[in-house]
Amino acid sequence: MKRNMLCEQDKHLTRRQLLRQSMGGLGSAALASLLTGKSTASQTQLDRLGHLPHFAPKAKRVIYLFMNGAPTHTDLFDYKPKLQAMHGQTLPNEYVQGKRFSTMTGNPQGKLMLAPVEPFRQHGQSGAWVSEFLPHTAKVVDDLCFIKSMHTEQVNHSPAVTFFLTGGETAGRPTMGAWLTYGLGSDVDNLPAYTVMTSVSKGTTCGQIFYDYYWGSGFLPSRFQGVKFRSGGDPVLYLSSPQGLNAKLRRGVLDDLAQLNRLQFDEFADPEISTRIAQYEMAYKMQVSVPELTDISNETQSTLDLYGPQVNERGTFSYNCLMARRLAERGVRFIQVMHAGWDQHGSLTTELYTQCKDTDQPAAGLIRDLKQRGLLEDTLVIWGGEFGRTPFLQGNINERARWGRDHHPHAFTIWMAGGGIKPGFTYGASDDLAINAVDNRVHVHDFQATIMHLMGIDHERLTFKHQGRRFRLTDVHGNVVNPILA
Questions:
Q1: Cα separation, 332 vs 93, whole angstroms
Q2: Geometric angle at alpha carbon 156, from 103 and 116, rounded to 5°
Q3: pLDDT digits over 215-253, tens only?
Q4: Cβ pair 141, 124 in contact under 8 A
Q5: Which are the contacts of 258, defined by CB distance < 8 A and separation ≥ 6?
């Protein structure tokens, strides 16, 4: 009788249900690995990818200080005497002929050149040029590697940010942090392997938005997406138990939920069910780990002073940089710290000062703090935005209070430190007006391939099959920038 009932049930199976149930073997293996506490890729994935890391990594973790809105390389790091000399003169057409700019610039012909707002000085034994906008960064240049030949194809913010973080300009692909946690797993079991924090300078007119897909997992299982730490209320949403629910009762509820989810997983083998189980467990552990993480009362005053006066104010870039160090020393794999407001279309002489004041000391303080704790050597720190800003003026040359610069994808600067990067080094160069990357050009995919390499991953081998093809962070491009490696 039972056999007949099962046969009758099979007759009503849809194609989707059949495919789901046929995945049970693979799915069960992955879930078993998850439930035993091993958070790396499944054995099937490891057999295909090769055991990860592919080779000895130079960095164990990444802290990515992403300056959303595009910092102006011509006012901060890329000193050009000719640009200074040509202030107010017409842009030479041969520098931009055939180049694409945003619709705000359109055809750049006839635009006027704009000298740096603040003077530059050389600093450190390396002699790196840094603007007086960034006095604290200037003091740590011998720990930094500047790449002054970055270039990209994107001319608008969201596609350009997405391109840097995912390797594609449209939403839906996994971010760098998701790829790394998918491939390498986690070194800590009571905090997420991939965390995100955001901040905006007070009073800024910048309308940049932090989209959730900037830390999304795309087509990877959602357990690899970034977990956002908030600036108000619970640091992580829904972390607190409802009123009247004690730890013992919550533990019982989670155990019962896990049983129900396993039953559903056995039937459908949906990887998102395993994610659900893992996230419930992580949330339970984070009820203890997150309050300890965010309690900075044990930090010395000298340490707090490294990060500047805003360090005690949740939601500031300064506070987030301190949290990044605390997350790093607890073994978190990828820490994404995003700060918006760098979109100075008409505020170079006003808001750029605020942006630099809010971020300069914390970024430099993070480098100093990591170094004094012995963490910098295996922590890769990155500072940069999605593109640069035009060396020519956006606005009226006679109205200094409204000077601005438009989006500029053809040459810009980022810096990196620690984690196997050559310190006190400058790589690549733009032309004599900082318009085009000309020497040792570094594309976004080269940058991504280099980060993967430092983490012990061959970027061409870490792939995921989706919609009939194997995807990777670097798409079908990218070369490791070997000269910047220590």
A1: 48
A2: 80
A3: 999 999 988 999 999 887 777 766 666 776 676 766 666
A4: yes
A5: 277, 280, 281
What residue spans of 167-246 are helical by DSSP H?
176-184
SS3 257: helix
Residue 208 and residue 157 in contact, taking contact as beta carbons nearer than 8 Å: yes
Tell me the pTM.
0.87
Q: What is the pLDDT of residue 250?
A: 67
Establish whether the linkage from the previous residue to 71 is cis, with ω within 30° of 0.
no
DSSP three-state, residue 327:
helix
CB of 54 within 8 A of CB of 456? yes
Per CATH, domain 48-161+175-237+311-404+420-484 is 1.20.1070: no
Cα 401 from chain centre: 32
Domain ranges of the chain: 48-161+175-237+311-404+420-484
Please give the Cα distance from 260 to 277 (Å, whole number): 10
pLDDT band for position 375 (cuts 50, 70, 90): very high
b (16+ CB within 10 A) / e for 272-302? ebbbbbbbbbbbbebbebbeebeeeeebeee
How confident is the model at residue 44, as a pLDDT?
Answer: 44
Does the structure show a pLDDT above 70 at 349? yes
Residue with tokens 């391939």: 449
486: three-class secondary structure by DSSP:
coil
- Helix ranges (DSSP H) in 131-190: 135-138, 157-166, 176-184
Rounded distance between C-alpha atoms, residue 401 and residue 282, angstroms: 50
Tokens of 478: 């990218």
- pLDDT, tens only, 285-335: 777 788 899 999 999 999 999 999 999 999 999 999 999 999 999 999 999
| pLDDT of 42 | 46
Q: What is the largest CA-CA distance in the chain?
A: 93
